Amino acid sequence: MDTFSYISNAEPGYIEGLYNNYKADPFSIESEWKKFFEGFDFAVENFSSNGDNHALIENKPSSQENLQKLDLHSPVSETTITEEFKVYQLIQAFRLKGHLISNTNPIRPRKDRHANLEPEFFGLHQNQLQQQFFAGTFIGLGRATLEHIINHLKNIYCRSIGFEYMYIIEPDELKWLQERFESGYSNPVFQLDQKNEFFRS
Questions:
Q1: Per-residue pLDDT tens over the stretch 55-90
Q2: Which of 39, 160, 23 is nearest to 89 (CA)?
Q3: What distance in Å separates the CA atoms of residue 152 and residue 167, rounded to the nearest whole number?
Q4: Cα–chain-centroid distance for residue 146?
Q5: What is the domain partition of the chain in residue ranges?
Q6: Alpha-carbon distance 2 to 9, whole Å?
Q7: Cα separation of 43 and 129, whole Å?
Q8: How confident is the model over 6-55, as pLDDT tens digits?
């Protein structure tokens, strides 16, 4: 079974149960879920529906209240968390397998390695492309449309340089590389004289 194939079948009630467990004890759930809920809470608390970076709520409510009683312009529900997690797993998939579809062969198209990076593989659909997701925070975009998130990921991981680094075990090393790839280091712009110097080297 593919690493992410179960995501499209995730039940909102199941994810809400995990969220409740996380609120009670963050270390009682798997690290991947913990990381997601930490990022999700940060995004919900710091990005309003129009993308402004300010707190949505002054006094953070407890579990169920946090899901149902936030600002009406930021519909956070069981289903919302499920959809956000799908986008988060799409981001993780690009980090893990984006190099499989990067354009690294100037002679012929890449062989199909079945990277399965299409939104539909994660239970996301074309009619959601203009929907905004807090998961954009995980790649430095803040709340962003699904289309913007996908284009940003393709621009980082699927151009003429491929990155394969998710196998790294040391968390600090992994985070260091990831932050640099996703903050623009992967797409430098060189002037003509620099390109000529590279060519002569």
A1: 333 333 333 444 443 333 344 556 678 888 899 989
A2: 39
A3: 22
A4: 10
A5: 7-200
A6: 13
A7: 19
A8: 454 556 677 778 888 888 898 888 887 888 888 888 877 776 544 444 33
